[in-house]
Design a protein that fits this description.
The complex is a heterodimer of chains A (about 250) and B (about 260). Helix content of chain A is about 80%, strand content about 0%. The radius of gyration of chain A is 21 Å and the shape is elongated. Chain A has 10 helices and no strands. By secondary structure, chain A is an all-alpha fold. Chain B is an alpha/beta fold. Chain B folds into 2 domains: about 170 residues, P-loop containing nucleotide triphosphate hydrolases (Rossmann fold, 3-Layer(aba) Sandwich), CATH 3.40.50.300; about 80 residues, no CATH class. In chain B, strands 6-7-8-3-9-10 form a 6-stranded mixed beta sheet, with helices on both faces. Chain B has a 4-stranded antiparallel beta sheet with strand order 2-1-4-5, with helices on one face. Classes of the chains: A mainly alpha (about 250), B alpha/beta (about 260).
């Protein structure tokens, strides 16, 4: 996205927000000129800390999901028999909204960072698994044969074929699932914790009827999502230049 | 140089392609393998490349039994096998990168491989094949003929002594095909290559092979070999002798087709 588009989009949002604030005209919907300065002011303090904690949880979830989903997806994509064995299981489990496991995870893993990372990681994991598997299955046997004929064994195939082939798949999966991942993180952070943007928005601000603070938290959460989208786009341009124009 | 000794090869689904099949290629010879589609031409190349192994018998190259892809054998497949995410330059360098990755271990790369001149070798072969100006392009951005040139450059950069090609000119237009066939014959003379080129076109086979191995319907038990005095000669297309040879090959291939029907 162009910077000009970004600026225009931000401006339009602010205008709409201001109009709605006038129309609703209640404390629960403060206008942007109250919230935006507060946001920047609090960003240097506790809001910034909560934002960092949430960001760290999402990034940890992304890395953990990648670490498991990439090898698993490559394996399933290249080994038909293994895929036939697991495909029904994935088919059934994939559409389950993972947030329903929140209570189970809280009990089993505890209320710390691990439970949030696990829950968000599960969402990203299934998305990546499916996309990487399909990508790996699409690799043409002729291409693999011709790379093998140049002396490539398993390790070189992984380094020169499988790994570069699944980078775009991972980025696609991230692009699709980051929104859901952050939404789920928000819910997870409102239970049994005292850190993270979800906690800041629901418990610290909403619970204390500090509406402007609450919206500062909402801004931070939106910023987190937007930043991750930008990061994925940037990585795509850096790592997959051959897709230029096709994204 | 290549000795195929009484090999038997069948696919897991039971289709037997070769049964007690023997065949020999001497160093420096140019061979074309011709036959209808599905007759096992590609399988033969995969066997020669060491990508698959026969269930019985063995293939020897320079006296060594072939058990895995051999570093000095170059293989060029039908759809060129280029990596879609790599530039032509990176594709041409791929084989050398793989060798650098393993080091000269004698298994994945020749023991005497020195890769100090990697960049030069890539540049030399890209220039020799006339694609140096496309170094930064991706395979989908160039023409079929240019992709095929990249595939040839990639293989020759590895300094092979055997070159195996599977229908390398099938997808090209007539002019490009003639061009590349000429270039291939020229390169094989320059580099002293032993070539085995698979094709379904009789004319191509007679241009590319001093000897033509005719495959009909599997399983193949005997190698039917037709010597070809017209190799590399595009001008003789309308000679009576050339046409007679075409006819002979067509008849040989036709027998198998009838058997199948």
């Amino acid at each position: 996205m162009r910077w000009r588009d970004l600026a225009l989009g931000t401006l339009a949002t602010l205008v709409l927000w201001q109009l709605l604030a006038w129309a609703i005209n209640r404390p629960v919907f403060p206008p942007p000129w109250q919230v935006v300065p507060l946001f920047f002011q609090k960003l240097g303090g506790e809001l910034g800390v909560h934002l960092l904690i949430s960001a760290a949880r999402v990034v940890a979830a992304i890395l953990a999901a990648m670490a498991v989903a990439v090898p698993a997806g490559l394996g399933l994509g290249q080994m038909r028999r293994l895929d036939r064995l697991f495909a029904p299981l994935i088919y059934i489990v994939y559409p389950i909204p993972k947030i329903v496991f929140l209570p189970v995870i809280l009990v089993l893993v505890g209320s710390g960072d691990d439970s949030k990372v696990l829950l968000v990681g599960m969402i990203l994991f299934f998305q990546m698994l499916v996309v990487v598997r399909d990508q790996a299955a699409q690799l043409r046997p002729e291409m693999i044969a011709s790379v093998r004929s140049m002396g490539a064994g398993r390790r070189a195939l992984f380094r020169f074929v499988y790994l570069p082939a699944c980078i775009p798949a991972v980025l696609t999966a991230l692009r699709i699932s980051i929104g859901t991942a952050i939404a789920v993180l928000f819910i997870a952070e409102t239970y049994a914790t005292n850190a993270g943007l979800g906690y800041y928005i629901v418990v610290e601000s909403w619970g204390a009827l500090r509406y402007a603070d609450m919206y500062a938290g909402v801004l931070a959460m939106s910023g987190l999502g937007l930043a991750l989208y930008f990061l994925v786009d940037w990585l795509d341009r850096r790592l997959c230049p051959w897709r230029e124009g096709s994204v | 140089m290549i000795q195929v000794e009484a090999i038997t090869f069948a696919y897991p689904n039971g289709t037997c392609i070769f049964e007690d099949f023997s065949w020999q290629v001497a160093r420096g010879e140019a061979w074309a393998v011709v036959g209808p589609s599905g007759c096992g031409k590609t399988t033969l190349l995969h066997l020669l490349a060491g990508l698959v192994r026969p269930q019985a018998g063995c293939i020897r190259i320079d006296g060594q039994v072939l058990r895995r892809p051999r570093p000095r054998t170059g293989l060029i497949l039908q759809d060129y096998g280029l990596l879609p995410w790599a530039t032509l330059r990176a594709n041409v360098a791929l084989g050398l990168d793989i060798r650098a990755f393993y080091g000269p271990d004698g298994v994945h790369a020749p023991r005497d491989e020195v890769l100090d001149d990697k960049e030069e070798r890539v540049r030399y072969w890209m220039t020799r094949l006339g694609i140096h100006h496309l170094a930064g392009h991706y395979p989908h951005q160039v023409s079929g003929g240019q992709r095929q040139r990249a595939a040839i450059a990639r293989t020759l950069a590895l300094r092979p002594d055997i070159l195996l090609m599977d229908e390398p000119f099938g997808a090209l237009d007539a002019l490009t095909r003639q061009d590349l066939m000429q270039l291939t014959m020229q390169l094989r003379r320059e580099e002293g290559l032993t070539t085995v080129i698979v094709t379904h076109s009789i004319e191509e086979a007679l241009y590319l092979g001093e000897y033509v191995l005719v495959l009909t319907q599997p399983p193949h038990r005997v190698a039917t070999v037709v010597p070809n005095p017209h190799v590399g000669d595009a001008a003789c297309r309308h000679d009576r002798a050339f046409l007679a040879l075409c006819h002979q090959l067509r008849a040989l291939m036709g027998e198998g087709a009838c058997e199948m029907a």
